[in-house]
Design goal:
This protein has 803 residues and is of the alpha/beta class. The chain contains 33 helices and 23 strands. Strand 22 and strand 23 form a beta hairpin. The radius of gyration is 29 Å and the shape is globular. It starts with a strand and ends in a 7-residue tail after the last strand.
Amino acid sequence: MDASTLVVAGFIQPGGCRMHPNLEPDFLLAKSREKPWRGAYTFVGHTAAVVKAVTTLVDVLGDRLISQFGLQCSLSHFRATARLAAYLHDWGKANDQFQMVVRKKRNPLESPQLIRHEVASVLLAYSYREWLQQCEGDFFTALSAAGGHHLKFGGNVKKGDTGEIGEIRSGSGSDRIYLYTCPKYFKALLKYGVRTLGLPRELKLPRKRPTCWTVTEINNLQNEVLEAFSDWQHDTVFASVIKALLVAGDSIGSALPPTGLKIETWIKQELSKILDIKEIQQVIDSRLQGKKLLNFQIDLGSSSKRVTLARAGCGTGKTLGAYNWAKQHAVGGKLFFCYPTTGTSTEGFLDYVHDEISSVLLHSRADVDLELATTGEEAEAGDNQEDELAKKLESFQTWGTKVSICTVDTVLGLQQCNRRPLYCFPAIAQAAFVFDEVHCYDERLFGGLLRFLEVVKAPILLMSASFLPWQLDAIKKAVGEPIEIIPGPEKLEKLPRYRFNLVDTPDWKRVEQELTNKGKVLWVCNQVGTAISVYQEAKSRGLNALLYHSRYRYEDRVKHHRAVIHAFKPDAPLTFWLKWYIAIQNKQTVEVEKLNVWWCISFISHVIYGLPVLAIATQVAEMSLDLSAMLLVSQIADPPGLIQRLGRLNRRYCGHALDAFFYPDTKTGFPYSKDNLKAGKEMIEAFTGEVSQADLATWLENNPTQGNPDKETVLFNTFRSWQMYPAPCRKAGHTITALLGQDLPKIEKMSAKLFPRYTVPLLLTKGVEKWERHKKGYLIAPADQWGYSEELGAYKLQGGEEI
């Protein structure tokens, strides 16, 4: 094989380039932008910005990175590998097809690039491996991170794991790509590597420098790289952490330079914002309002183990106990409080840390929740073009936030290469974690939790109404060290809260009686169609009824959710009055003005909704509604679901047991199987007297089903560590998220960030595969198949049974 020698200082190399297209301007770009082309928009400038960002992240997080993930390497080796990954990540942009795209002379939708630029980075860096392996750090770890930093490397969720090193696309209009590796274009990048990474000034390669690749050459090189990865001896966790760090570093390196902020200054400033004990105590004191902590909550705060389990029923004060736990385990870092649904995370945010501490609400539609919870108005800036820079910066809220209230996907999604967790990685790398309602996790989500427990060595609190024997065994095995299990307050859990009544049909007279007595009734159905029918019957009877399910436009769902919450909170005006009084005493002028508005809204809600009310809901009530009903009516469901529904009855104990009426669901198969419904009925029939939460937990633990958790993840995967692509955190459901056809005229001129306001979860039915897809990726439900009203939500107009 011909040898090619390069002295980087003078860039002396025999042989010429195969012809490639001329460039205007005549240098390499990394980003698409109008003039002036300079700084971070240039090839070397962007590389330098990302190397600087990654270096600063490692220097700021320091040994915390090593301890948080139990890494066995030195910090210097980790730092060198991360910097090498940042240096290599965009090498592949030095090709003619990419350069035409950023100059807007090639439409990638009409003429896709033959290979993605990050795949080209892997192949090109591999061609220079003898030189690159002479600097400190693990070359193949850096190479895999570079290839995966846009999450399209080695796998495709729709087609299954391909195991390939990228995809060669058809329809590119060319059978080859040209590489700008001649001295004129590549010299500056190589010199930067010499100067910054300590690479040798003399470059010796046992082959000619690549200047053009045909499809055949790309195929051969991919196979060679794949074989090299297959023989790669590596630490899976180490490689995964490097990948996550590169994604975060590349994102912030791309976002900050145009703003004029210095990368090092911003990163140091944001990541240095950590919790102190006084701030957590402030949250606790605000919630206690002069009362004392329960012994159970005190025990949580005294737990000395890294992983603690709180086994306690609904309404026993687990959340407050978790903040007491955080006083010992989250001080000096950040805290992630993870809920199973967006509704519960929103309520946790508003009830505990909103306005009390530097906090942020994180889930895919958090901006909608907060906006509608505070003002009820849409803040439209008047710019219909999506502000890409602002959108990216919004993803970094957690970097400077001390407490993040989120859905569990925001954390466990890290392992499945979901974008938000990867952008949050610098915060995750220095955080303690609380996972609530663990018993509600499906097999894939619980499997992800187990893998997280194996990999992440941070302080972790798991909270659940019950832990089945197999779950406890799996958790103990995953943690690999002693854990502490703290039971809930025995006195509260043994209170006789419920009386079970198994009936053939709903007892409307009992419901009307409760409402006549100014009671609050919760009715839970298993299907949306059933809930709508019950709601329409209630309205025909002249009852004050509210409807809440998942099949609304998201912004309408938020309004229905808040209406139900307010209807079951008659003390809301008093709560805000107390906050207002405290703000007055502390001379917090801005806070007082804000609470004046809140108090008025809450008082009006109290007048309107502080009446006898019947709330009719579906399974969304099981976790997202923090309320205390005086009567529960429910269709029979599986035992865990029934226990969750019962957690909304007599939640704030009234002094005696209250009635729960259960009636059959004749629609077996969705969402519950015949066996699910049989088990639910058996649990109801097992109790003839008054029932406590402790009774239910004992029954569930004595009648367990053996779980089969799915621990398959993309990151932290021992067998395919070079791959990096997004995968779901949860099992596939029966719904899809879509836009309604009738909403298209309204949203076409809107920023894409506002689209979630108009998304609706719809049933997966025949014909969905024929629906058109919006340019932003959402499926479009045909207007002649799905109708909609703000009161009832989405409903089928034709074909199939409405469920």
